[in-house]
Amino acid sequence: KAGVTQTPRYLIKTRGQQVTLSCSPISGHRSVSWYQQTPGQGLQFLFEYFSETQRNKGNFPGRFSGRQFSNSRSEMNVSTLELGDSALYLCASSFVGAGYEQYFGPGTRLTVT
Amino acid sequence: KNEVEQSPQNLTAQEGEFITINCSYSVGISALHWLQQHPGGGIVSLFMLSSGKKKHGRLIATINIQEKHSSLHITASHPRDSAVYICAVIEQETSGSRLTFGEGTQLTVNP
To answer: Is A82 left (phi over 0), alpha (psi -120 to 50) or beta?
Structure first.
């Protein structure tokens, strides 16, 4: 079974630009969660999507948004990029959610200059 | 104070040593995850616990719900165990997969 894939793996953007990251979950998984990892804040939850609906949202500004498609693939978008958005963005999929094992993708390394 | 605290933050061991990493949390939880992150960023889920004890190879994870504490043990440690180990909890009132993470423990195992 193929693992969780994320594209692109690396990205360099300029302040003020917007970016879209993609996550393809394991086949059959309907829950996709997004996380941000920075040296200063560690891992933080961004949001979770289940069956095309946002089920949970972390404490991030509205510049961070996401969506999930009918095939469970998910995208997250960050508008008006700031230097502090430089981070490793990870997605994880699970069959249903809370009580199930999380499978993480390799991450997208975003650098904002 | 963080909701999830791990100790120690850094741990250096010699190959073959028995290792313990601790995780304490301050909220009611429905489950706790132990994760492993290697250089480069990839995260692997080692265990998901809601009670008791689980074992996989040389790894053992325990949880005491009443004391709000979990431990990850590595028996006969090996240099390939060198990684960051992260404890993450799912709070009781949360539906879905919202994880709250500890700061991680950097483990280095020397040959």
So the answer is: beta
